[in-house]
């Protein structure tokens, strides 16, 4: 029978095993050690030096390049890093033994009295999380930011005591929760992504995203995109306890956020906020939605309306998301490396206002590119494939553009883009794929793009 992992003492006799020695693993080790657990960190790969240093400093036991089962299977609780699938034999074995396997988010929440704003979705998570954090800080609220951004949540819980945390949450992190309950949950959108981790079933991925609200009560709030058909369909067929606050570009919304005469209008219990969309610091439909979600949170927290407006006007967005790098020979180079799925790239192409040379490709997570065809026909003059296997891209877009080429490195792709672009064009890196075939992660891919552009 599975134990409730929270029925644990702080006597030092409880064993916390951490699978994965990265950011979340090292942070959980700091917090677990502080709370009196006997900590053991195990990583199948190599642990980065900066995390080894952390583990050595706090004097916990760790191993790399292996998982010693005897040391792992006698755990009282296991924190599994989000990158490790639930289907790994070792994880299945732990679950068979009734040993709780949880995420860092679940573990750390048990040791903080801070209120939580959780943000999930296929796209816009990071921007919305940073947006909320930006407005709350401007409103003089004591707030930390964690999850997929900044220092790990567990590390911050161990070292800081803010009144609120804004957490960017992936579906993988939500898969490992049991009791986690955000006072405010935000769901930006749902489009097919990471289906390789969900048996290629969209409904499994959707269920995973909605776990953000499963422990919420009628005193909590659920902010969501009412234009998203997948979200609307799920809500039609499933009940949630939290108070719903939708946002929409298209619909009339009584309680929540809508667009009226090019103004964002937010109504919460007859308290109204409005501002023109034209003054937003970040333009584009998707950014308007991110702004509506963030401003709805700010309204709930009763931040001054003037502060919300100013914050939304001066917010500058995030690295690797439609980031303008340089203009060379009047060609704008744009880094959208964070676009790791088709929907994110759809937004990027939609926002292009000039002829575009598009750099695309990487590890395909079950992508279907058909939705991009109209935009590619309208805006893209040449495609540069950047991946180990580009077959699907070549088959899908081969007849759309005159020029489609394959490259095997970022410098080669950028040099090719330089040759193919003309005055007034844009060069857009928006891969629609994960990065792990040629790069360490999407940040590494984005930085290599920027370096290559600067070296032209």
Residue runs with pLDDT of under 50 for 5 or more positions: none
Number of domains: 3
- Round the Cα radius of gyration to an integer and report it: 23 Å
Q: What spatial form do the alpha-carbon principal axes imply?
A: globular
- What is the top-level CATH class of the largest domain? Alpha Beta
Class based on secondary structure composition and strand pairing: alpha/beta
User: Strand share of the residues?
Assistant: 15-25%
Q: Tell me the span between the first and last alpha carbons.
A: 61 Å
Number of strands: 20
Mean pLDDT: 92
Strand order of the largest sheet: 7-8-6-9-10-11
The number of helical elements comes to 17
The third-level CATH topology of the largest domain is UDP-N-acetylmuramoyl-L-alanine:D-glutamate ligase
Largest sheet: 6 strands, parallel
């Amino acid at each position: 029978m599975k134990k409730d992992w929270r029925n644990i003492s702080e006597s030092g006799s409880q064993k916390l095993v951490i699978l994965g020695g990265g950011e979340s693993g090292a942070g959980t080790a700091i917090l677990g050690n502080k709370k009196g657990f006997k900590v053991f960190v195990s990583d199948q790969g190599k642990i980065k030096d900066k995390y080894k240093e952390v583990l050595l400093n706090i004097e916990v036991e760790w191993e790399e390049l292996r998982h010693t089962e005897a040391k792992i299977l006698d755990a009282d609780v296991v924190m599994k890093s989000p990158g490790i699938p639930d289907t790994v034999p070792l994880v299945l074995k732990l679950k068979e033994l009734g040993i709780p396997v949880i995420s860092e988010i679940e573990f750390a929440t048990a040791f903080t009295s801070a209120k939580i704003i959780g943000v999930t979705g296929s796209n816009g998570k990071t921007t919305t999380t940073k947006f909320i954090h930006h407005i709350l800080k401007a409103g003089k609220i004591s707030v930390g930011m964690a999850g997929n951004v900044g220092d790990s949540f567990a590390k911050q819980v161990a070292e800081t005591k803010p009144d609120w945390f804004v957490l960017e949450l992936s579906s993988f992190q939500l898969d490992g929760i049991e009791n986690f309950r955000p006072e405010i949950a935000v769901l930006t959108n749902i489009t097919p992504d990471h289906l390789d981790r969900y048996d290629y079933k969209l409904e499994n991925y959707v269920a995973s995203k909605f776990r953000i609200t499963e422990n919420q009560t009628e005193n909590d709030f659920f902010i969501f995109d009412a234009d998203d058909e997948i979200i609307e369909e799920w809500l039609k067929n499933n009940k949630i306890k939290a108070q719903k606050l939708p946002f929409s570009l298209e619909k009339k919304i009584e309680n929540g956020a809508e667009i009226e005469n090019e103004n964002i209008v937010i109504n919460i219990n007859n308290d109204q906020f409005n501002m023109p969309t034209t003054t937003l610091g970040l333009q584009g439909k998707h950014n308007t939605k991110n702004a509506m979600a963030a401003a709805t949170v700010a309204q709930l927290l009763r931040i001054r309306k003037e502060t919300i407006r100013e914050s939304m006007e001066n917010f500058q967005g995030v690295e690797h998301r439609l980031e303008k790098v340089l203009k060379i020979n009047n060609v704008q180079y744009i880094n959208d490396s964070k676009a790791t799925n088709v929907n994110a790239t759809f937004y990027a192409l939609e926002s292009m206002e000039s002829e575009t040379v598009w750099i695309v490709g990487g590890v395909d997570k079950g992508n279907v590119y058909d939705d991009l065809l109209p935009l590619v026909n309208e805006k893209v003059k040449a495609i540069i494939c950047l991946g180990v296997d580009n077959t699907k891209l070549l088959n899908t877009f081969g007849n759309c553009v005159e020029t489609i080429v394959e490259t095997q490195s970022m410098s080669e792709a950028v040099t090719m883009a330089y040759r193919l672009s003309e005055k007034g064009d844009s060069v857009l890196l928006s891969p629609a794929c994960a990065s792990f075939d040629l790069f360490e992660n999407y940040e590494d891919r984005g930085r290599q793009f920027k370096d290559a552009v600067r070296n032209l």
